[in-house]
Amino acid sequence: MKALVPLIPLCHAVWLSALLLTACGGGGSSDSGTAPATTTTGTTATSDTVVATAVTASVAVVDISAEDLARLDPVGLTPRQRLGQLIFNDTNLSEPRGTACVSCHRPNMGFAGNNRSLVGVPLGSRGVLGLRNAMTNAYTGFVPSFAFRVEDGVTEAVGGHFWDGRADTLALQALQPFLNVDEMNNASAKAVMAKIAVASYAPLFRQEFGANILANIGTSDMAITAAFTQVGAAIEAFERSDRLQSFSSKYDAMLRGQTTLAPAEARGMVLFQDAKRANCAGCHLMNPGSSNPQDSLFSEYTYYATGIPRNTVIPANAAPQFYDLGLCGPVRARPALPVTLTATSTVSIDAFCGKVRMPTLRNVAERPAFMHNGFFKDLREVVRFYATRNSNPERWYGPSGIPNDLPAVYQGNIERTKAPFNRSRADGPVLTEAEVGDVVAFLGTLSDGFVVPPRP
Length: 456
Ligand code: HEC
Ligand code: HEC
What we know:
Blueprint: H1 4-23, H2 47-56, H3 66-71, H4 79-89, H5 101-104, E1 147-151, E2 154-158, H6 170-173, H7 176-179, H8 189-197, H9 202-209, H10 221-239, H11 250-255, H12 263-273, E3 303-304, H13 339-344, E4 356-357, H14 379-388, H15 394-397, H16 433-444
Antiparallel strand pairs: 1-2, 3-4
Helix pairs in contact: 1-2, 4-10, 8-10, 12-16, 14-16
The site of one heme C has 25 residues, from helix 14.
C-alpha cells in the first residue's frame, strides 16, 4: 500500500508524456520509456503488482481508430442524431482540447474504454486518472429513471444513469462530462457553447434548434442554459439511434431464427440461466423465448454491492479511509427514500451504501475493463470471480478473505442471498474452469456487428 503514494505522480508523468507523444504524432509504442510490458490480467495480484502493472501498461497505443469512425458512419441518421454524433466525436470540446465523449465510449470497445488508460479508470483531458471505469453508453436508451421500489418485500433501487444513478435522463447525463474536471474539464457551459458556436456543425445546430439559439450565448445566462440543454438533447438522440442500439449480435440473430449458437456458446447460455448455479440471468435479465431483442437487455438496472476487490491504482484509493460508496456517494448526494417507504418499513439509506447499478452485458466482451472500479481487465477473471468469491475469498481479497473495498460498517450490504453469492465455502466453486470458458463464449455472442451467414 505504501509504495502507491510515490508511484502515482510517476504514473502521471508516464501517461502525460505518452499523451504528448500521441498528440504530436510521435511514433512508436506509447509504452516506450517504461519497463517491458507484463500482462494486464493480474487481477488476483497484490497491490504492489497491480501498481507495477499500472506503470508498465500505462496507456494503449491506439487513439480513436479508423474502425471507430467507420462504425460511426452518418448514413441514415436524422439531422438531430447526426448533430449529436458530431458533438460526441468532437475532440475540441475539452480543456485542453483532445478528449471527446468517444475517447471513453469507443464503438470498437463496446462504447466503453478509458481514453487509452489500461488501469481500469479513464484519463481525462488533463491527463489525470478518474475514479470510476467508463460505463458503456450503448443501449442506455433503455435505462429507466432512478427510483426506489419494493419487490417481493425487498426495497431496491433501480435505474438512473451512471454507476450511482445520479442523472435521470440521457440528456442531463450528457452535460456532466463536459464540466467534470477529470473528464473534459471545461470551466463552464458558456465555455462549451463558445466552442460549439464556431464548430463546423454550428449551422446544423441552428437548423435543428432555431436560428437564434446561439445568438446570445456570450452575454445571457438564460441563452447559455437553453443552448447547453439542447446539446444534451442532440447527444441523447444520437445515443438512442441504431448506431448505439443496433441489436445486431449473434444472440439477436439467434432470437430471430437466423443462426444457431456454437456448442460452447450454447452450453454457456444454459449455465448463464441456471438459477441454482451461476444465475447470471437472475440479475442480467434475458428472454430467449421472445424473438424481440428488447426483451433481452441483460440488466435489471438494480443496485448491488457484489464485493468487487479494491482497485489500488485509482488515485483516490491511495487514502486507505477512502471508499467509493456508489449510491451513498461521494460523487452523489445520498438519495432520500420516498415517504411512502419510510412510513411502512424501517429500511434506511445506509442499506444501499456500496451498491452500484448493474450495466447491460451487451457488447461486454469488447470492453477493456469491467466493474465500477475497473478492477478486472479480463472477462474470464470476472466469471472466475463470480464462480469463486464465496469458495475462495482469499484469492480476491488477500489472506483475511474479507471484501476489501467497503468499510466494516457496510460489509453487511454485500449480496449474499442470490445465487451464486449464496454459497458456502464448502460448496466449492460454482463453475469449473471449462464452464467458465463456456460462459465467456456465450458473453461473446452479445457483441454487435454479427454478420448473418447466408442461407445454404
Ligand atoms: C474521460 C472519460 C469520459 C469521457 C470523456 C466521457 N465519459 Fe461518459 N462515462 C465515463 C465514466 C467514468 C462513466 C461512469 C461515471 C460514474 O458513474 O460516475 C461514464 C458514464 C456515462 C454514461 C452512463 C451510462 C449508463 O448506463 O448510465 C453515459 C450515457 C455517458 N457516460 C455518456 C457520455 C457522453 C455523452 C460524453 C460526452 C459529453 C461522455 N460520456 C464523456 C467516462 C467518460
Ligand atoms: C445479484 C445480481 C447479479 C448476478 C447474479 C450477476 N451479476 Fe453481473 N453484475 C451485477 C452488478 C451489480 C454489476 C456491477 C457491479 C460493480 O460494478 O460493482 C455486474 C457487473 C457485471 C459485469 C461487468 C460489466 C461491465 O460493464 O463492467 C459482467 C461481465 C457481469 N456482471 C457478468 C455476470 C455473469 C457472467 C454472471 C453469472 C456468473 C453475473 N454477472 C451474475 C449483478 C449481478
